Amino acid sequence: MTGSSSMHPLDQATALENLDGSSLRGQFPYAYANMVGPYGGVIAATLLNAVLTHPERQGEPVAMTVNFAAPMAEAAYAVVPKVSRTNRSTQHWTLELCQDEAVVATATVFLAVRRDSWTGADTAMPEVPSPSHIEPLDTRGYMAWVQNYQMRMVQGGFDPSGQTGEQDNALTRMWVRDHPPRPLDFLSLMAISDSFFPRVFIRRQQRMPAGTVSMTTYFHADSEMLRRQGDRDILAEARGGRYYRNYYDQDAELWSSDGDLLATTHQIAYFKG
Fold first, then answer.
1. Higher pLDDT residue, 239 or 139?
2. What is the pTM of this model?
3. 195 and 148 in contact (C-beta within 8 Å)?
4. Peptide bond between residue 180 and the one before it cis (omega within 30 degrees of 0)
5. What three-state secondary structure class fits 241?
6. CB burial of residue 27 (10 Å; 0-12, 13-18, 19+)
7. What is the pLDDT at residue 1?
8. Which of 5, 114, 126, 197 is the most buried (most CB within 10 A)?
9. Which of 217, 176, 168, 182 is nearest to 197 (CA)?
10. Phi, psi values for residue 227, rounded to 5°
């Protein structure tokens, strides 16, 4: 189920074993541990993997929403994927992730067979220094999951020492890639779309209980675009919206090294403090 030790940590973490033809079993390694349970990005990538490896899968991911219904224990879990509807070029899935027969996460995935069309963009990649001009983040003192990424902060980082004061905004720009390097695919792009530190951490520059409740990622790339990206750094930008009565929102974009918009992501998160 966890695969060979030679497998990349992400592939080990998202590996699933067929149980009975309708459900799958897995277990997250400590390498992706977060404040409470596993890192949300790897949970989302695992649910996506349940769809992408399913024999009835048709098309490539266009949109995915994950709802984190309860904290996840570091124990085995079951994933139940279900095709809700298949059309000529689109397919809709629903999934449940359960532990001890209780639902801890749900998801919907929309797949499509992409066809040639007019292409344009209203959003431009920010102008930032290249990755080679920025030192990688020293991840000592951070949660275990951070060790799986090489982050080069352009602006808007988090100081775990608590010596940095509250900020005027929570804008983050960083170059990021899997560590060790891994060619980009939909699983790693899904996981990286949640690789930002909580916006409330950035804004207040202090740790507090916080966690994503619902996250939606839109994929603007196909397999060929991801193949061209390879294992190069992605430019990721995130900002907060409103922090109000224990919840805040986050919007983010992820860009290829060639300046193509790979994904946009939106989430609502809980915080206490």
1. 239
2. 0.95
3. no
4. yes
5. strand
6. middle
7. 47
8. 197
9. 176
10. -60, -40
